[in-house]
């Protein structure tokens, strides 16, 4: 590849195992290719939130439902309830047997407000996954 800069990354062993499984299942040529693809998607999502004007989208977050995390989620929601059009909440048990809470927000409003809401969700204590889709 042209203009490639090498960096060093550290991952827990369980995550490397999962990365290797995705590389195999999805047909990536290497871990690096998968990580580049995931990074591009993350950068694209982030750039979509920086557009001027109104946006619509879906925000998904999965986290450990501790008192602190649930208070942080409630605070984020109440500070931005003007852009939240719908909420779906469920509890799940992950493949490793841990109980998690899933919240799905349908959002619509000024991109700066949506971005600020997503940034708060991104920092929730015990968060294990988040995803934003803007359209």
- The H-level CATH homologous superfamily of the largest domain, spelled out, is ACT-like. Chain A, domain 2
- Rg: 17 Å
Strand order of the largest sheet: 2-3-1-4
Number of helices: 4
- In the CATH hierarchy, the third-tier topology of the largest domain is known as Alpha-Beta Plaits
Level of helix content?
40-55%
Question: Could you tell me the strand content as a percent range?
Answer: 25-35%
Mean pLDDT across all amino acids: 92
Could you give the count of β-strands? 4
Number of domains: 2
CATH architect. name of the largest domain: 2-Layer Sandwich
Query: How far is it from the N-terminal to the C-terminal residue, by CA?
Result: 32 Å
Structural class by SSE content:
alpha+beta
Q: Report low-confidence residues grouped into runs of 5 or more.
A: none
Order of helices and strands: HHEHEEHE
Q: Describe the main β-sheet briefly.
A: 4 strands, antiparallel
Structure description:
With 135 residues, the chain is an alpha+beta fold. It has 2 domains: 13-47; 53-134, ACT-like. Chain A, domain 2 (Alpha-Beta Plaits), CATH 3.30.70.1150. The chain has 4 helices and 4 strands; from the N terminus they run ααβαββαβ. It has helices at residues 13-26, 31-49, 67-79, 111-122, and strands at 54-63, 84-93, 99-110, 127-134. A 4-stranded antiparallel sheet has the order 2-3-1-4, with helices on one face. β2 (84-93) and β3 (99-110) form a beta hairpin. It is globular. The model has no long low-confidence stretch (mean pLDDT 92).
């Amino acid at each position: 590849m042209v203009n490639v800069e090498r960096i060093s990354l550290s991952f827990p062993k369980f995550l490397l195992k999962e990365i290797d499984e995705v590389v195999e299942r999805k047909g990536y040529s290497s871990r690096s290719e998968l990580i580049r693809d995931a990074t591009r998607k993350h950068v694209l999502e982030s750039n979509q939130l920086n557009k001027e004007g109104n946006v619509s989208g879906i925000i998904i977050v999965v986290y450990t439902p501790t008192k602190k995390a649930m208070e942080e989620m409630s605070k984020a929601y109440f500070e931005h309830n003007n852009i939240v059009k719908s909420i779906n909440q469920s509890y799940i048990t992950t493949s490793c047997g841990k109980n998690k809470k899933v919240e799905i927000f349908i959002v619509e409003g000024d991109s700066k407000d949506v971005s600020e809401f997503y940034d708060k969700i991104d920092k929730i204590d015990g968060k294990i996954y988040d995803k934003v889709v803007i359209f």
